[in-house]
Write a structure and sequence with these properties.
Layout: H1 9-70, E1 74-77, E2 94-96, E3 102-106, H2 108-123, E4 126-130, H3 143-154, E5 159-164, E6 170-179, H4 185-188, E7 198-207, H5 209-271, E8 277-279, E9 285-288, H6 290-296, H7 314-330, E10 335-342, E11 345-352
Antiparallel strand pairs: 1-3, 2-3, 4-7, 5-6, 6-7, 8-9, 10-11
Helix pairs in contact: 1-2, 1-5
């Protein structure tokens, strides 16, 4: 006869440690995901700022080029820094004023090149007018520009990329398409271009150090903030885990006490010479000790689930049932002497209910 139950102590201890670990891992993954998402947003914002800066330079250059092309070029004095453009094949490239000064026509490409020469030393911003079939060899596209021009030929949208420069400093490289306008044909009609076609691009190179420095600062701030959030979350989980472990330990202690009490009760049932039985609220037998089953001349397994009406005379069984109900209703034990039939005849016993 076994009134015990499976020992769950080890399972509860594993539960008390595994669950906090699972929550801790889940919290770490969640914080890591949000941190990565924020870093990506900061990176995207950095690229967007670089693109806006490059686009602003491009729009200024485009406006100046448009003004120049609208006047079919402008005449400037010939100097050592501004010699006649040998690649500008037009009949009125050079003229002489009435006072003897020699002027040369400066087309948009020549003007842009000189603007780039001015801005490069002071602002580290470089402009380059280029195409896949340039007139001037100096306008030949480099490797990055060639790739960008080919991409623009397929999809005439500006291209931007963050790339390392030859000196090891990162730069933003921006390429915007140049569409053929009516004013462009004055210089480029011989190349067979038509109005609306992509004839090249304006390449702009700007330093990325300032924006990348700001990005690093933002990421450092994010690391600090998320480390604090992650640490506070782990502390909260540790507190919750400690409370859970204490409750599990209390439960284990209570179960151990109950286990010991039931083992003691089971030992008493087995070894006691007194007739001992255990009934439920419906007055059916849950357990009996060997002395009780031997007294009735039955196996204990044949008694479990049965009632007094299955073994005793009806009058005695009814009296037992009534007394048991009174004890259940009052919650107090009752002691009585009664005469019961046995295999050896009738005998008097003391009944404690």
């Amino acid at each position: 006869m076994n009134l015990g139950f499976p020992d769950m102590t080890k399972k509860h201890k594993r539960f008390s440690f595994v669950i906090p670990l699972i929550f801790g891992l889940g919290w770490t993954l969640a914080v890591g995901f949000l941190f990565g998402w924020n870093v990506k947003q900061v990176t995207n914002q950095t690229v967007q700022l670089g693109e806006q800066e490059a686009q602003a330079f491009f729009e200024l250059i485009a406006a100046a080029r448009s003004w120049n092309a609208g006047h079919s070029g402008v005449y400037v004095p010939v100097t050592a820094d501004t010699p006649p453009n040998p690649f500008l094949d037009i009949p009125d490239r050079d003229i002489k004023t009435t006072d003897g000064r020699v002027l040369t026509k400066m087309n948009p490409a020549y003007m842009t090149r000189q603007i780039s020469e001015i801005t490069s030393p002071t602002h580290s911003v470089r402009f380059h007018i280029t195409s896949l079939k340039p007139i001037r060899p100096g306008n030949k596209a480099d490797t990055w520009e060639t790739t960008a021009l080919k991409a623009i030929a397929r999809d005439p949208q500006p291209k931007l990329e963050l790339v390392p420069a030859t000196d090891g400093k990162a730069v933003f490289r921006y390429m915007a398409p140049m569409l053929v306008e009516e004013a462009c044909l004055y210089c480029h009609a011989k190349q067979g271009y038509k109005v609306g076609e992509v004839r090249g691009g304006t390449s702009i190179t700007i330093p990325a150090a300032r924006l990348l420095r700001n990005r690093r600062q933002h990421v450092a701030n994010l690391i600090t903030a998320y480390a604090i959030i992650w640490g506070l979350g782990l502390i909260g989980l540790a507190i919750a885990a400690g409370s859970l472990i204490r409750k599990v330990n209390e439960l284990d202690f209570e179960r151990t006490q109950a286990w010991e009490q039931r083992n003691l009760f089971q030992t008493m049932l087995v070894s006691s010479p007194d007739l001992i039985s255990l009934k439920n609220a419906e007055l059916n037998y849950l357990a009996v000790n060997p002395a009780f089953s031997q007294f009735l001349g039955r196996e204990d397994t044949g008694l479990i689930g049965r009632s007094d009406f299955d073994f005793w005379p009806p009058e005695l069984a009814e009296r037992h049932a009534q007394e048991d109900r009174e004890v259940i209703g009052s919650g107090r034990a009752a002691v009585r002497d009664e005469e019961i039939p046995s295999q050896e005849g009738r005998m008097w016993v003391q009944v404690i209910t």
